[in-house]
Amino acid sequence: MERRSCGVRRACTLTLLMVSLCPLGTRANWMWLGVSTAGVPEKTGCANLPFSPKQKDLCRKKLFLLPSIQDGARLALSECQSQFKHERWNCSINDQPSLFGHELTSGTKETAFIYAVMAAGLVHAVTRSCSQGNMTECGCDARLKGTASAAQGWHWGGCSDHIQYGTWFSRKFMDSTSKNMSLLPKGYTLLTMNQHNSEAGRQAIERTMSTDCRCHGVSGSCAVKTCWRTMAPFGRVGMYLKERYERSVHVLDRFKKKWKRKERDVTVDKHKLIYMNKSPNYCLEDQHLGVAGTRGRRCNRSSHGPDGCNLLCCGRGYNTHVVRNVERCECKFVWCCYVRCRRCESMNDMHTCK
């Protein structure tokens, strides 16, 4: 594979759901699929999106999937911010064309999580739309219907989530630039790393699925049960991927000149997240890398976890502010028909990093 710079437009063909892999230079260009910084939908067509030719062609053929793709992008971004809200890197959105800034192309653990959660979000949203009957090309997974386990007194029925279609579309859309997702003879490139992590995100949907059942019988006797397969809430998928992020595997960059012989032929499980480069500490602001730093972030003085003032503030110390809270309390229902509450005030300490 030839190494190319992001300055070459042909190299910018891998688009990560919400943004082009290479910044295009204007604020409007980093709006992806009608999702702007303010969350206001933009009216646009496939031709105006920062997609590769193959992705634009797929977009035109599957135009009915655009709402689901938008939902998947929002779902993934929201979950990313939820999982990292107490950490130094909090999945922050940068006010620049590349949205995630340096993390999107840095080859770090954060890059790995972004690609995985975006791919998973796309599978989840498309599959959910299929199960709800919103599309003609897919529906419930009917492969299990008609089979049963007589010994256990249940049979397959209901509407099992058909993740195969969502997985196929996510793979087709996000990995459209290359079919090679395996380990290269001399290590990984950024492209194959991102593809590996995208596939790990898709596999996370399948690995977190559960079997739900409903009882049938006289007076709730549960003589027979009907069961179906269903996706986990996306929050559970996010937790699963966060665990994979914490245990992500370092792999070799194909273009590094120095090699460690014992690491050359390392094989990585497809369910694990991988990264090539060490992450910055995210303590101090770096506008060039799009790192916001932790100054002014709220911390928990009594916590020993990542949200604790010592870790989150990187040893710089913290400021304490007294915050006055006013809320309704001691509410009672008065006949008839309204609720009467008292107005309660409290003073609480708030700690922010220096």
TrEMBL record:
Pfam families (UniProt xref): wnt (PF00110)
GO cellular component: extracellular space
Superkingdom classification of source: Eukaryota
Signal peptide positions (record): 1-28
Stated family: Belongs to the Wnt family.
Function of the molecule: Ligand for members of the frizzled family of seven transmembrane receptors.
Record protein name field: Protein Wnt
Protein source organism: Periophthalmus magnuspinnatus
